[in-house]
Structures are given as structure tokens and as C-alpha cells.
Amino acid sequence: MPGGLKIPDDKSAFQQFDISKTVRERLNFNEGSALGWADRDGRKWQMLYFSWDPARTRRARILVQDGKNHVPESCLSASGKKLMRDTGVKTLTVNNFKLPVRAYVFDDQGEPMHVYFCLWQELTGVKESDYKKSLTRSPRLASVALGNRSSGIGLQILEIAVWGIKDDQESQKAAERELRQLIEPKKRS
Fold first, then answer.
1. What angle (nearest 5°) sits at the alpha carbon of residue 95, between those of residues 139 and 124?
2. Residue 133 dihedral angles phi and psi, to the nearest 5°
């Protein structure tokens, strides 16, 4: 991410979820968290965050590449949610940073679930328009097209979901508002 994740001072509104042993073993990330909360309008939110340290060994490079397989259309479908539509790549503006995300709408037992997915790597010399290409249906293939083999590069994945909003634009604005509470800009040294 462009900065670090933070939990607002009023932690009472947030519920931290355990990440299952199966998911931990499958994704093999270095850091992971899962949060749930309700916003001021009573809508339900969930956020998943995973990061893999920069790869220094062949095994670490493989783990970073495997992390790119964590995409909503496969993981959420496997949990019983039905993909209604992929609304494409969007840009969320969060604390003066443009965060490229792939946006989806799933059906979760008859209720719309908007999902914003960001796969982030610190790629030097890559233009924003080219970086958005990494948010294709196959992030691993997009990395090849960008000339990135994860050599020494880590990976971060952020997935935020909201239930109870029918309109795509309203959902995007709400996601930006909620993320402003959770992402701090990176401190320049």
C-alpha cells in the first residue's frame, strides 16, 4: 500500500477476525489481518490485508507469486458468493493517494456486496496506466507483461467489501471514506 494500515483510536467499532489456519498455510503471507465493522449508516464492512516481504530467495519469490492467486472472483465464489459483475479498474482517492483497485459486485444471499481489490507492488519506473494492467483477471500474467518477476519485490493485497449499497458510485465514495480512516500516507524519510 502507499502507506501503512492503521486502526482508528476508537477500536471499539472494529472487530478483528481470525484468519483460518488453512488460509494462513495456503497464502503463506508475512502479515495479515481481517477486520469487520459497521459504518455510521449501519452498513456492514469487511477488510482483508495481506503482505509478503520482499523476496530474497527463490522460495520467497514463489510465495509472492502465489499470493497473486488470491483474487476475489475465485476466493469469494468458493465461499458461496455469486459474481454479478466485474465493474473494472477504478481509482480510489485515499489521503491524497490514488489507489488502483478492481471493483466487483457479488450476490451474497440476495444482498449486493461491493468488493474493491488492490494488489500492490512497489514497481519502479512503471506508469500508473501500466500499473493498472496488473489488476487484470490474471495478476501473474500481468506481472510478466510489466517485466516484473518479483525479484526482490514484496506484495501487498487489500480487499475491502461493503454490504447494503446498491449504487456503484455511492459504494465507491463510501469505500474512499472508510479507507481514509484505515490507511496512513507513507512517511517520507
1. 40
2. -65, -25
Amino acid type, 104: Y
Q: What is the per-residue pLDDT across 41-81, written as a single tens digit (0 to 9) for each? A: 889 999 999 988 888 888 888 888 888 888 888 888 888 99
pLDDT of 140: 47
Give the three cell numbers for residue 131: 500499473
What are the pLDDT digits (tens) for 119-167? 887 654 444 555 455 555 555 445 545 455 545 678 889 999 999 999 9
d(CA 75, CA 68): 12
Model pTM score:
0.81
| Three cell numbers written together for 9 | 483510536
Please state, in angstroms and rounded to a whole number, the distance separating the CA atoms of residues 24 and 34: 12
| Phi, psi for residue 50 in degrees, rounded to 5 | -135, 140
Residues 6+ apart with CB under 8 A from 114: 103, 104, 105, 161, 162, 165, 168, 171, 172, 175
15: left (phi over 0), alpha (psi -120 to 50) or beta: beta
- Show contacts of 123-131: CB within 8 Å, 24+ apart: 123/148, 123/153, 128/98, 128/100, 131/100
| Secondary structure of residue 36 in the 3-state scheme | strand
Contact partners, residue 61, CB within 8 Å, separation at least 6: 55, 149, 150, 151
